[in-house]
Amino acid sequence: MTFAIYGLSVSNGVAIGQALTISSASLEVDHHFILPGEEQQELKRLYDAFGAAKKELTDLKTDLPENAPEEMAVFLDVHYLILNDPELQNKAIELIKKRHFNAAWALTTVLDELLETFEDIEDPYLKERGADFRQVIERVLVALKGTSHLEDHPLQKKVDRESSEVIIVAQDIAPHDMLRFKELNFCAFVTDLGGKNSHTAIVARSLDIPAAVGVKNASSLIKQDDWLIVDGDRGVVIVNPPSIILEEYRHRQAELRLAKNKLQLLKHTPTKTLDGQKINLMANIEMPEDAAEALKSGALGIGLFRSEFLFMNRQDGIPGEEEQYQAYFQTVTAMHGMPVNIRTIDIGADKNLDSDLKTITSDISPLGLRGIRWSLTEPDIFLEQLRAILRASAHGKAQILIPMLTQVKEIEQTFELIKVAKQQLDDRGVAYNPNLQVGAMIELPAAVFILPAFLKYFDFLSIGTNDLIQYTLGIDRADSSVAHLYDPVHPAILSMIYKVIYDCQEAGKSVSICGEMAGDATLTRLLIAMGLKDFSMHASQLLMVKRELLKADMSKLKNYLTEILTSFEPHIQAKLIENLSKV
Ligand code: PEP
Ligand code: MG
């Protein structure tokens, strides 16, 4: 049956392929009845899996690094105790013996019952302990399948068909899972949940594949192997399209490919507006390997390296100083002396760490210990990162960028720790650039209103519009139900952006935008009218923005700004912004 479902467009283009539906839980297991007489064999599988899970936990504890946080060992102990709880095993044994469930099915049934009990608990701390049971049982389930935790992840299920024709359909995808797309090369994805500027959507855009999020019930309406068209421009998914529609979309696909190839011609053109204003276009990256794409698009540096992605999808602890140093070294050397703004870990909100490390940063709310707040509570981890960046600065233009600052006290503590990190390297006789530049993200309204403090301490600023919008308008950027209210051109947002650009220029400090607004070509002229000269975006967006810039005249556009900034009627403001394209 053909039908269309609608959501939010997060990454443009058209993809045609077959659905690979992925259950949100990694507990997607085989359910079947065992035959009479197979009970002992199935019980043995269950005992072996418990044994393997216990061994895994013991090994993890033995291998814990000396500087591992105390909670890590406690967490492993708790899981070990759960594994040894006879009741847990007994219930599963009973289901295998009496109801002939296979072991995996028996275990998930026990888990479901347990989680229900936790749901009824009022105490928030105890309620959360349900997650421990889930993690322990997941570990046993993985052992049952005889695979490692990571390899068993549903996204690793490489199907036997060409991956370039596979469209992932899921209820939701975490940002760290999106990273796996980079390796698996899917052609599009569709999720039930998610907002336009969630980190998942941002990573999707960086992959330059069409995607639609907030497509309600997609994962239940779409069946495995259904043929799909993902119209990323409109956020529409057409399920089992008739051949006439398929043909039309194949034609559009070819047109888009042609237009993209044409854009490549601009790669080496210097970025200057019509009135001769030089504009600096840089790239946002998540991993060192992304630097190659940045260079290919003609980026003049890395405006934002989201270093937290180095900390995701790991089974072997947080990357230490040496491992981080290698990653930063790889990036700065790839960028051949161009600036690389390494943002210190910004964990929290929709970016949580996967797997065992979750205990350290489990579910930090957007208003919680996110970004620099977390780093300041984990000075040892923060110092490791600072030392790694400092060491990379001896080999290229590594710069530090600090996320989520709101208070002068935090700024002072940050600089104090940078001083400590430098001293530690001096003591070890390790080289770094003593004049390395330090910048701050401006992404909370409070930061905008104490800008003089930021200008006093920092060498450069970068406006994080994704969070600035989220925190100014009170809109969860990952929640599709309020996506229609997430408005980058809300007058409050525009006046804040303009204020930051203006004040920085008055103070002679460089300022860029590294939020998604920078890569939205429909807003390029507006940002130019505000006097913005430094942009940072995903490499996939860079040439489209460049094309706009080459046709824009900054001096003329500036004349229209006051009217836009003082227009509070949405339809009038929209018209005024649209008119900029005619200037
Ligand atoms: C932002 O908030 O605009 C930003 C660039 O940071 P992130 O999207 O990683 O929160
Ligand atoms: Mg941010």
Description of the molecule:
By secondary structure, the protein is α/β, with parallel strands linked by helices. It folds into three domains: 3-23 and 151-245, Phosphohistidine domain (Glucose Oxidase, domain 1, 3-Layer(bba) Sandwich), CATH 3.50.30; 39-144, Orthogonal Bundle (Enzyme I, Chain A, domain 2), CATH 1.10.274.10; 274-582, TIM Barrel, CATH 3.20.20.60. The protein has 24 helices and 16 strands. The strands form two sheets. It has an eight-stranded mixed beta sheet with strand order 1-8-7-3-4-5-6-2. It is globular, with a radius of gyration of 26 Å. It starts with a strand and ends with a helix. Bound molecules: phosphoenolpyruvate and magnesium ion. Residues 202, 304, 306, 346, 443, 464-467, 514-515 line the site of phosphoenolpyruvate (PEP).
Task: Sum this structure up briefly.
This protein has 583 residues and is α/β, with parallel strands linked by helices. The chain has 24 helices and 16 strands. Helix content is 46%, strand content 13%.
* Molecular shape: globular
From the N-terminal CA to the C-terminal CA, the straight-line distance is: 48 Å
Helix proportion range: 40-55%
- Report the uncertain regions: 147-162, 355-359
Number of strands: 16
Q: In the CATH classification, which architecture of the largest domain applies?
A: Alpha-Beta Barrel
CATH first level of the largest domain: Alpha Beta
- Describe the largest sheet: 8 strands, mixed
**Mean of the pLDDT scores?**
88
Physical arrangement of strands within the biggest beta sheet: 1-8-7-3-4-5-6-2
Beta fraction: 5-15%
Structural class: alpha/beta
Q: Radius of gyration over alpha carbons?
A: 26 Å
